[in-house]
Structures are given as C-alpha cells and as structure tokens.
Write a structure and sequence with these properties.
heterodimer; A: about 240 residues; alpha+beta; Nuclear Transport Factor 2, Chain: A; B: about 250 residues; eight-stranded mixed beta sheet; 5 helices; about 30% strand
C-alpha cells in the first residue's frame, strides 16, 4: 500500500472526480446527439492506437474511430430527413442538421463504478455497468424502445488538456426491445416508411472479432472485461484496447 | 456524535475511504456477475478470524453468520446449483457438453449499484453504506428462459483490516421480482412479492423474516447516520435487526 501525502491525495481525488465527470458528460452529450463533440472533446489526441471496442470488434486508430463518430452523425441526419417526411408541417421547413436527434433519446446510464488511478498519476482505468435505454421514433422498425445493458471499461490518459479516453470497450449483455424477454431471437420487422434508415450501415470495425456475445440461452459466463485493480504504471496492467 | 475538528490529512483520508468503499462494492457486483464468488470472499470480505466469525450475509429469509457458512452457500451451493441446471440442460440437449466450462451456461445476472449513501465512523475503523440496486437475473431451463427484473436494497457494514476496507455484514433486501415484460399490477396482492423462504439447500444460521416488501415498509435495514464508533450504530448484521425491534438506539 502506497502512502501518499495530503497534497497528492487531494490531487488524486480531483483526478477521480474529473474521470467521473467525463463519463457523466459523455452521457449528457450522447442524449443530445453530439457525437462529433464527444469525439473532439473526450478522446485522446496524442496517444498511439486509441481503441473503441464493441461486441463485434474494435475501431482502432484515429481514422477508424473518427469515421465511426462521423457515421453516427450521418445517421442522425438521415433520421431527421425521415422525420421531416412524416411530419412535414412541423419539421419540414428547417434544415435537417438543425433537428438532428429528433425523436430519439439514447441514455448511457453509467452505474456501479470501479475507478483506479495509476500510482504514477499518468493513466487511470474505470469500469461501469451500463443500464442503458433508448427510445427512438425513427428506427428500421419504426418507433422502438430498447434496453441496452452491458459492461463498459475505459483506459484514461492524462494529456495536456486533461484526462482523455484512450481505450473504451462497450460490450452489451442485453440489446432487446423493451417489454420483451432478451432471450427472444425474433428478427426485426422492417417498416418500409423507414427504408432510408435501413439502407444506412455503420462502418464495420477495422479489427473485427467476436469480442463478447449478447445474452443467449447457451452463452457461457465470461469474466470480461477484467475489473480494474490497483496498479503503479500502465505497463504493469492490462489494456482495454487491442 | 460530537462534531470533531479534523486535520486536513484526516479529512482527505476520509474522502478516499468513501471512494475505496465504492470501488469495493463495485468489485463485489462484478465478481458476483462473473461467478467469481470464491475470489470475492477471499479478496473483498473480512479475513481476520474475529471478523470472519461475526461476518454475515442477510436476505429476506434470514442470516448466514460466519464465513464458513457464507462460503458453503455462496461458493459450494452455487456450483451445485449450476451443475444441477447443466445436467437438466444436457439431458434435454445431448449436443451440449457436460463440462466445468459450461457451469452456469445460459445464466446471467447483474445487480447494479446506484444511489450510494456512505458514512465513515468518526474513529475511521468502520463504515456503513446503503445502495439501491435495479437488477436482472436470467436462467435457462430445458424448455424456457426465465428473465426477471429484481429490485433490491443493499445495506452493508465495512471494517478496516490492515488499512484496507472489507465487507463485514452484507444485507440484501429484495423489494420485488418481476418477469420481463410482465405487468406488476397483475401480481396477486395476497402473496409476498418475494419468496420468504430460503432457496432449497441453503443453510441459514438465523432463519427469520428479516425483510419484507409486502406493504412497502420495513424498519430494517436502518438508514445509516453519522456515528463515532460501531458500538453506537445499528448493525446490518442480525443483531441490528434485534435492536430495531426494540426501538433502535436513539
């Protein structure tokens, strides 16, 4: 056990708070669909190989992650145009960019934190359980409420402008329609009104792999991602990136 | 409790006590979800013999007291239940291999921790915390998957051992269990929403109705209050329940 000075403990407490605030700011910016702001503000700028991982693989490197966030913005614009067609009187006279995010809310409710600051104060690791949910009028199925529960693990790096995300892993246990059993495997029923949304596809991870399976009745229990443990410097711990 | 003047180093130490306790409970939640129960008891719960003797794990139907019985239920019985479930699944589906790697297959749980309220004792040796837990448990059977919402209150006593916080008394009071997609108002009002008997095979040191949500009222566990030493607060172990039945310590 390391004995820190009072001054060091105060500084480390400030670091802890800043990291908690990053995750809170992610949540509230996601709610208002500021995907470009999230990418510009909360991600590192000077580290090698930043990574954003999901169940089906990793976006590795600045270009791949940037394209992912850019595609989120493009999808929001497509949804805004669909909304304008459905509600021309209310929404038809404005630019789609001005109603970006209309009809949808995605809440990244981060709970159950475990946060470890490296003893050297240069990096930190955090883990949260995502009790997420979304309500969206404009999906390929039409209006839909979705439970999204899963594990979120992040490596943070201290850069000149403050703490930043270096590696982030978001692996879902549950991604199912609200009110339904998440073991149900019924396929989506596509509504032709929302054809434009169906035609859009997100860029695939540039490191595709089966990182983590959504719940199914033959899924094994998987102790993943590892829970952060106290560590001295990043080279002595595991990474949430690839 | 009299208000003490604390030095800055004591004050920041107490701030870190709270953060470390949050991390400790977060680890408990993940170890439980990861089925790492033996690791949880070895790393997160009390290790000193005098504390292990009085450690407790309480639920609606009573208390397990002592680390021996807690381990027997939380580790050994859990493995036994997994094996029984796997045997049934394999009987119904011969393509499924009956091997240790498949213990727990098709099961999933997560007891989220939200709304923390933590009090560090004035003497810094113990702490009490309360969390609310929205959660889910999911089990696969040969003919169906049972997916349930489970909402619970966590009340925990912590004790410092050689500078590290450990779980000493853990109480989990379940408020309701509801099938995913089911209408809560359709539950029969005459029943307790949560079983008031321990699951089959579980050893309980003090069987009793320690918690009930039948009328959405239960005096236990007590909401923590500032306190100086553990002797002047209400324990989240079974003795705290007795104290509250007598009217508490105020």
């Amino acid at each position: 056990m390391i004995n820190y000075t009072t001054e060091q403990l105060v500084k480390r407490w400030e670091d802890y708070n800043e990291i908690e605030n990053i995750m809170g700011r992610l949540t509230y910016n996601e709610i208002v669909k500021k995907s470009d702001y999230i990418w510009d503000t909360f991600w590192c700028k000077n580290m090698p190989d930043p990574c954003l991982g999901f169940n089906n693989g990793y976006y590795k490197g600045y270009d791949a992650i940037g394209e992912y966030y850019s595609a989120l913005k493009d999808l929001d614009i497509i949804k805004a145009k669909v909304a304008q067609k459905i509600h021309p009187e209310e929404l038809g006279s404005v630019a789609p960019e001005d109603i970006r995010g209309v009809g949808g809310i995605n809440v990244l409710n981060f709970t159950t934190p475990v946060i470890e600051l490296a003893a050297d104060g240069k990096t930190a690791k955090g883990m949260w359980y995502l009790m997420g949910g979304s309500g969206d009028f404009y999906t390929e199925e039409g209006p839909r409420g979705t439970n999204r529960w899963g594990r979120v693990a992040v490596d943070f790096i201290r850069e000149d402008t403050g703490w930043k995300i270096w590696h982030m892993l978001v692996v879902l246990d549950i991604d199912s329609k609200m009110g339904s059993n998440w073991a149900d495997t019924a396929g989506k029923i596509v509504d032709p009104t929302y054809k434009k949304i169906t035609e859009f596809s997100m860029p695939a991870p540039n490191v595709p792999q089966n990182v983590y399976e959504l719940y199914h009745s033959r899924r094994r229990i998987k102790a993943f991602p590892k829970v952060p443990r106290p560590y001295t410097t990043f080279s002595t711990t595991f990474s949430y990136g690839v | 409790m009299t208000k003490q003047v604390m030095t800055d180093d004591v004050r920041i130490g107490r701030v870190w006590d709270i953060l470390e306790i949050k991390n400790l409970m977060g680890r408990h939640a993940y170890y439980h979800a990861y089925d790492m129960h033996a690791e949880e008891l070895d790393e997160l719960w009390v290790q000193k013999p005098e504390n292990q003797k009085s450690a407790s794990f309480g639920q609606n139907w009573g208390y397990q007291v002592g680390m021996g019985i807690i381990r027997k239920n939380y580790v050994d019985l859990n493995i036994k239940w997994h094996q029984e479930d796997l045997d049934k699944l394999c009987d119904a589906d011969p393509s499924l291999e009956n091997c240790p790697e498949n213990l727990g297959i098709g099961s999933m749980l997560m007891h989220i921790l939200s709304t923390p309220y933590i009090e560090i004792a004035g003497d810094g040796q113990t702490a009490q915390g309360m969390w609310y837990s929205p959660g889910q448990v999911t089990f696969a059977y040969p003919d169906k998957v049972n997916a349930l919402w489970m909402y619970e209150k966590y009340a925990v006593d912590f004790i410092k051992e050689d500078g590290e916080w450990k779980i000493w008394h853990l109480f989990v009071g379940t408020d309701f269990i509801l099938g995913v997609g089911e209408d809560m108002t359709k539950q029969p009002v005459s029943d307790t929403p949560v079983p008031d008997q321990e699951p089959e095979g579980m050893d309980i040191t003090i069987p009793m109705q320690a918690y009930t949500s039948r009328y959405n009222w239960s005096p236990y566990p007590a909401i923590p209050r500032p306190y100086e030493t553990f002797g002047e607060t209400i324990s989240n172990g079974p003795e705290g329940h007795q104290e509250l039945q007598k009217g508490g310590k105020d």
